[in-house]
Fold this sequence. Notes:
Blueprint: E1 6-7, E2 10-11, H1 12-22, H2 24-32, H3 40-54, E3 61-66, H4 82-92, E4 97-102, H5 113-119, E5 124-128, H6 129-132, H7 151-159, H8 162-175, E6 177-182, E7 185-186, E8 188-191, E9 212-214, H9 218-226, E10 231-233, H10 236-244, E11 250-253, H11 255-260, E12 269-271, E13 277-278, E14 280-285, H12 286-290, H13 294-323, H14 334-337, E15 341-343, H15 347-357, H16 363-376, H17 382-390
Parallel strand pairs: 3-4, 3-5, 9-10, 9-11, 12-15
Antiparallel strand pairs: 1-2, 5-14, 6-14, 7-13, 8-11, 8-12
Amino acid sequence: MGVGNKLGxxxxxxxxxxxxxxxxxxxxxxxxxxxxxxxxxxLAAAAESTYEKRFAKPAKHxxxxxxxxxxxxxxxxxxxxxxxxxxxxxxxxxxxxRIEFIGDNQICGQLSCVEKAQxxxxxxxxxxxxxxxxxxxxxxxxDYAYMFRSRADQYYFLYSPESQRILRExxxxxxxxxxxxxxxxxxxxxxxxxxEDKPTITKLEELFGxxxxxxxxxxxxxxxxxxNLNPVPVAWEETLDGLKQGLIDGAETWASAVAYANMSPVVxxxxxxxxxxxxxxxxxxxxxxxxxxxxxxxxxMESSYLAQVHVQAANEAALVNTVGHSDPQLPNTIFxxxxxxxxxxxxxxxxxxxxxxxxxxxxxxxxxxxxxxxxWAGGIxxxxxxxxxxxxxxxxxxxxxxxxxxxxx
Length: 409
């Protein structure tokens, strides 16, 4: 699959040639703005004009954005909003804030970006909350099994003022990080090539006893153990090899992550278990945010809101049109090209999974961690409060959830 090496006909070599002249951030911001085909001349012209705009006057603040393994190519597959946020913030502040975008794991990876942001090595980072939970354990608050019924519930919560009280404020207080915005999918089990010649999975029990990669989330492990899915901690960067060599049967992650990480060639069945959050979030060092004057702080929040609205619409479209995570599956999508079968389990199978592993039905499994997280949040019942809040969501389709500025009650 060519997405890894080319974007609209531009090779990596060409990209680096342009970046050598105008800088990687200007080149990536220019490339990220192209919807269709792009020539080297087009890219160079766009990078030049982006560069001139960005450097028209000296910046008051230059912020380093460590974006794990993301770049302008794979951000068109999983729409995590990082480049849109950077572009909008620079433009909104007339260049007073300049973003140095560093992706492709050059400054930090999925597991380390959160710590680099806490240490001030980067000012802003993008990575999954589940991988970041190793360095910022409060992020486990999103990972109670079956707390969210759908991607619509996830967006509803991210836009809700309740997310300030239950997620953002305790996260900032405990870890010194400001949660800005996030993409939203729910995790399933992505089966490796050992399942290529097997019939399409239809029953939950067909997954029992398989060995599956788990992220840094402690709560994800509770759910996987309860479902007899044998969680094995494997770093994101090593998951591809693990699936390829058959060291693991599958991996818990979400559909667009499989596609953006070029994992589709080694995944045969994408089982949409939807058992807990898959959230590729962007957050900022809180003391850096606090060091901005009020007007620039407002700009960061407004650009976060714009990025959140963008992600909500763009990722829902990309799941169908780019990834191929739909039934029926569209031809020429990444999943279709790589013969990845979508497995959308029947409602009774999802219900069975929920009854086996969720805090609602198996409260004893969650007691220790629930108490710990509740303590970190000042004694509120985090699971129940999020559960109750998202069940006020009237929408089943994620694109229909009404955007709200969550920091304005």
